[in-house]
Design brief:
The protein is an all-alpha fold. Helices cover about 80% and strands about 0% of the residues.
Length: about 200
């Protein structure tokens, strides 16, 4: 990683807890500069505004998270376990950092205002990756979609929709994990032959 890239990553990593603590509206560039250990002038050399910085943070978080989701789904092993790990990676990378904040709604709204295109692209990629994993599992005979009449893309979209619901009920106490485990048990029972459950 180049020095400039390291500097930007440091600023974005420093900004995340500041936004989580104060919310988007109350966070100032001075707060971020102080946390990053740089001057406001240095911060403004890197980012012209708080909005630009927030969007760059969203780009980075989505890029890193989707790379992790893809890596998890590419692993060898039980497809339901890989889907569960992918959902966890997605939640940890994109939901947990703000979901644990009392400013979560404001931050998610700011993200949709400033980086909606990035969020939509990541969701589309997630559905595509899940669809590929389901299709591969079906081709290997690991799961059977015949009884449900669903296509892999339908199931992937349903999983993503369930994740959205879980996101809106995200809890810092880990109860969201219970919802993910329940979703995975339902998928396992519905899709896998009894001998593989």
């Amino acid at each position: 990683m180049k020095d400039e890239d390291r500097k930007l990553a440091h600023i974005l990593d420093s900004a995340l807890p500041v936004f989580a603590r104060y919310g988007f509206q109350k966070t100032t560039m001075a707060d971020i500069a102080r946390t990053a250990g740089i001057s406001r002038a240095s911060l403004y050399l890197a980012f012209n505004s708080k909005e630009e910085l927030f969007r760059a943070g969203s780009v980075r978080a989505h890029r890193l998270t989707m790379a992790e989701v893809e890596a998890v789904l590419d692993r060898v092993g039980d497809v339901i376990d890989r889907i569960a790990a992918a959902i966890s990676a997605f939640q940890e990378g994109l939901i947990a950092p703000f979901g644990k904040s009392e400013n979560a709604k404001e931050l998610f709204d700011a993200n949709m205002e400033l980086a909606e295109d990035i969020t939509i692209a990541a969701r589309s990629k997630l559905i595509s990756l899940l669809s590929e994993a389901v299709e591969d599992a079906q081709d290997r005979g690991e799961i059977d979609l015949a009884a449900s009449g669903a296509r892999p893309a339908d199931l992937a979209a349903l999983i993503a929709a369930a994740m959205d619901g879980i996101k809106h009920n995200f809890r810092a106490d880990g109860s969201s994990d219970d919802s993910i485990r329940l979703l995975m048990r339902v998928l396992r029972l519905a899709l896998m032959p009894e001998s593989r459950r």
